[in-house]
Every structure is written in structure tokens, then in C-alpha cells.
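Quick one:
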Amino acid sequence: MKVRRGLFGLLAVTAAASIGCSSSITGTPQPGLTPVDVRSLNTGSYANEPTAYEPDISGAAEVKNIEARRMLNYLVLPTDIDKELTIVGDVELFSYPEAPFIRKILPDKYQPATVDNNLLAGAYVSRINPDLRKRKKLIVSILRFPTEEASRKAADDFDRITNADAGRHPITVDGHPDARASSADDVTALSFLAKGPFVILTNVGVPLPDQSALAGIFKKTIDKQFELLDRLRPTPLDDVLDAPLDPEGIMRRALPKSSDGTDPFLLDYDFGPLEAAGELHYERNAVEMQAAFAENGVDLVGRRGGIVYRTRDLPAAFRLQSALVRLGKNDEELSAPPGLPDVRCVKLDSTDMIRDHDLFCAVVYGRYVAVVLAKAKLSGAVDPALYQRAAAQYSVLAKSE
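Output:
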């Protein structure tokens, strides 16, 4: 398969005939988009015009999910605690007390702690390292309750339920005497700590029994989570819908969910706008992407059928595209879609856990980069829908100006 190489086509610089041979033109060449005839693109059955983002809000759970998504922007990124935690496990949003158990995220025994104390919303993330022989894990969740009293009781309930299991012992966390941390084997440990209306749930795993290491990870994680929660102001749930759902138009620039059910993912609870910090929880290369976001001014991301990143400018968009398509050990770069030479596509060696895909394309238009997804056929062949989605996403971006 022919592989497209190189990132940019440099803007051609043409001198006027009156400029002599010794003349020079100052400035730095910048990347430019290759001209595209949008009308000629094969967009298949996918929307090729911008569409308003109008999620189905039929009850309280959908309202709480909006607040839970906002909380994700203030949740500790595990790679900030340990850069080796590169493998994404779950990224979850909770919008009612039973949600963590219906999705099999928390053990059923903890359901009284969320139900009795009326869990309002929550954000949860887990990551592990790739070394099977030296396995590490970090799970962090912030759970919002109606009052500070309810959050303290919830933390007590979580801890009581945990320590009903015989053989557990407490772990002291320096600087956080109220952290209810405990372990049965000094390999894995749990902590529950109330702060304001929130409970910080932390689950830590280390390769070998080491109580000191567990305590150190708890301290570093809780310190960072306290710092982030100090910036989070809970929105009264009655006020959530008073704010626009897509105030800066990032969602209308993203390809909507397919109307024919051909997306590789089934659920769309992760749909919505996020700050860069929230989006990093979903990124497969979180350490590299955190640096790329900072370098290229990524300040807003819209997760829909397509995932759109807003960067500083066009050169930054091309740099971000390169970061997004960085190949893993056994990944493969694919040829560009017909008529879209600036688009870059990748076949992943393993399926992405979040949206169940192993094919994606990164589309650049202006200051925006958009990622569209598909899943390879059983034969391993590229699904033609991938290129149709890329064409449709390009059209949406081009018509969003």
C-alpha cells in the first residue's frame, strides 16, 4: 500500500518580474492546505453540512451528564502521577446513583454508598502500564453529592463497606489524615476522601507489596486532585441548561453520529464539548498529546461522531495532526482518501477501548483538526466508510466558516 509521506506542502513564493536576482524575500514558509473541490468528494451517506448540536435531554439524568462531563475537566490525569500509565481503561461519566453498577465500574457492594447519599454526578478514569510483569494501575474518580454532609457520610460508607472484608489494614497518607486509605496486601489499596460536596475515590496498584509506595501515590494523587477541585465550582443542577450547550460552535463543526448505525461505537454518552484537560483522558498517547496540546494552543475539543480539536492556527493544526497520527510499534499509516491529500489515516494494531475502532483519519481545515473513526473488516481490509467520513468531515469544516 502506498504510504503518504511528508506533512506539509509549502506555500509557493513567486517573485515579481521586476525583482532582481540579488533580491530576497523575508519571512518563514508556512504550511498551506492543498486546494480541494468539496463538491467532488465522496461523502457517502454521511452529513456534509454543519448541523446544530441538539442532544436528547428528556430527563434529569441527561442534565446531570452535562455536569459530569464538565467535571472530567477537573479530574486528575493518571499520567500526571505516573507517566508509565499509558493504557486507557475506562473513562466514565455518572449521572445517577446506580450508573457505576449498571456499567460494572464499581463493585455492587458499594451501591448503598451512592444510593443512600444521592450521588448527583461523577467522573471516573482508569489507566494501567503496559508491563504485565510489573503491573501498575491508578483509578481516580470524583463523585458529587448534594451537600458536604452527604459527601462525608458517603466517604464513611465507602470505607466501612471496604473494611468489612477481613484482613485489611489502614495506610497513613502524609498530609491527609482524613483519607480513608486501606489495603489487604500492600499491592492494591483504596482511599475515600471527602472535600466539599465531592468524594475523591482513589484505587492504586503497584507491582510488589510496598505500603510506602502506595502511600506516596495516594498523597501525590490527592494533592493534585485538591488543586483541581479548588478550581471547580459545582453548577446548581437547575442552572445547567441555562448555559448554551455549544457556546463556541465546536460541536457544529464535528461530524454527527451516523444515521444508519454504521459508527464503530454504540454509546454516545461522551458526546459534548471539553477543555483540553478533559479530552486528555480519552487520548491513547496522553503524555505526548498533553505536550502537543500545550504547544499548539488546543483550548477546546468537541466529541461527536467526529472529534474536533481547536488549535491556535493552521501551522499548529498540522503539528497537532502529526501528533495524533504518531504510529505505535505495529500501527500502519494508510494512504490518504481520494481528493484529500492533506488527510492522514492510521490502522491501529489494537482496538481503541473508548470507541471500539482500529481505523482513523485526521483531517485539517484552518485551525481545526478532526478525527473520524471506523473499524477494519474481518478480512483486515479498510472499511470504505472511513474515507467517506473523512470527506464528510472535511466538507463540514469547510462549510462551517
